[in-house]
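Hi there,

I know you've been waiting on this one. I reran it after we fixed the sequence typo, so this is the corrected version. Both the input and the resulting structure follow.
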Amino acid sequence: MKMSGWGYMRKIKDLYNTFLDLAWWKVCLIYPIVFIISWLFFGLLWFQISKEKGQCLANVDSFYSAFLFSLETQRTIGYGHRYIRQTCFSSYVVLVLQSSIGIVIHALMVGMMYDRFSKNNNRAQTILFSRNAVICQRDNFPCFVFRTANLQATGLVDCQVVLKFVYSTITEEQETILLDFINLQVGEDDVSQEIEFCTPVLIAHRITPASPIYDYLEKGLEESQFEILVLLTGCDEATGVTIQARVSYLPRDIILNHRFVMIESLSNSNDWILDFKKFHSILPE
């Protein structure tokens, strides 16, 4: 989805979260640029001071030496050949200003990089969803079924699964709603289902006449235009951070009259074995 007009400008106002959402190559490019700009800016100030008041700085006689002096000051590398003399008040002001601003820039950039590495999206990528969903019979009812699994050893607490049916509709007033959402019933009588993530789980929605999938199933899925959005939320028991994993299934991703291959089995020592090579495998009913 592309945004135009004021939408992009509002993202600029929220620079922190905009930075977190950037691609990695942009982050790796911005990180050194911010520091280089600050070194160049204060390098110009030091160069101006050395030109107007030559007794303030020792051995700073060009912009290149002023840039190196700026880098040494902000990165607290330490003074050697170039240093501040005690006869100039303006150099003290610039020194304090650059040291303070340098600490703020360093803290912000390190904090942003840490948040970038610890984003919830990284944990959500360890939640696996089946490539396809199937429609099969369960207790004499057709059901929409997909499989999900937690690949991490740490579990998810209060894990909830919500299914949303997304489609386009036209109201009686001839208003076109491009994206309309209907909650699909999961489980017996709820719009969400709490699951235990100790093993891969099959999530099913019973297709009754009240289900929005029912009419599309009778017409045929080949020419249907809808999307089933899956939202899985839970709290990581190791970090206490709430995560959300998402996947969607289009009509072309739904296979009729098939069911998932069982991947759980017991070994001779009564240990459960999970064969993830068959995680996406399906077979005809």
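Quick highlight: The mean pLDDT is 83.

Best,
R. S.
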